[in-house]
Known about the structure:
Layout: H1 12-41, H2 47-75, H3 78-91, H4 101-129, H5 135-142, H6 144-161, H7 166-184, H8 211-237, H9 244-269, H10 272-291, H11 295-322, H12 329-358, H13 360-389
Amino acid sequence: MTHKPNSSFYSKDFIFLTLSVFLISTAFYFLMPTLPVYLQEVLHAGKHEVGLIIGMYTLAALLVRPISGYALDTFGRKWIFLIGMILFSLLFLVYPIAASLIPLLILRFLHGLNWGASTTAGFTLVVDLVPAEKRGRGIGYFGLSFTFAMSIGPVIGLKVMGHGHFVALFLVAGAVSILGILMAMLIKYPIFKRPEKPVFSWKALISKPALPVSVNIMIVAASYGGVMTFITLYAKEINLNDYTGWYFTIMAVGTALTRIFSGKLFDRYGPTLISVLSIISVSGGLLLLSHAPVLESFLASGFLIGLGFGVLFPTLQTMANNVASHGHRGAANSTFLTGLDLGIGTGSVLTGLLSQALGLAWTYNAAAILAFGGLLFFLIVSLPHYQKFRMD
């Protein structure tokens, strides 16, 4: 890599990259609250089948991320990013004809593969584009693309779906995603210098220095994944289904507020205090969700979970990049995002299974305990490892 990052991350390339990821993420979040409804109302799927289909998407992303990381470090970022986005967008058009569980499982797997490749490339690109001393802020501000997508995507998706307009939902999602491709084509990509003798090895697929924080995000994301997948169905159970869109919006507001200042705090003071407070916030939000199923508590839980995860995600990702060498950023980001996907996928499947026996309220209570376990792991494993191996 011969590109030198701009001294400010407010370059046009950073903006185009953020916009492109914002658009494909908005399309992604169209389906987050609506696909479970489609599965139950149209395909008559049970909760465990809903969890399996949602989990299949993240399983595919999980499998492709290590390969994507190796490819990004070997062949460069541009074409992996663009091809992944193009295929991701086109697959939305296949949903209307995948009208049974098995074809939909296959489609979700293919969709997850391209989501995993394109987002891994996007996060690696942003690290290339911002200077190391502003990496916390750069990743945090770039992460706002996901935050704002999480805010408006579910709301628009629910509006488009209306009373069963699922075909329109899939087509609009595809159109929004295609706009993201147009933004990506405006980026001036950093010049990439390929290794002279690239050698494939299984060890190259995983970044060992990034493993502790990757396991950490996996633990907390398992609790978060159950919320994101089943909150629409839970809202129906507690007679608050008219406020599902508001839940996602308030969660995104909490995330956005923290993203504005958490990266700057990381760059100045390090990860310890903000990580501890963020995990406590996620755990507290889950407890509130499970024990006080009234409107005020329902919305407050979304704010607390968004607040906590909004800090934790860019904090741990910056830690993963700070212990990786320049030529292994692709592997570091893929390892970290693999942990994220594994957590969300596992959380979706386990939430579906546990809720069959315990109900969603008690399942969210268990998720709060799991999130608190992520705090212990951070203090005992992730933080000491980071302090020992930090490179920047």
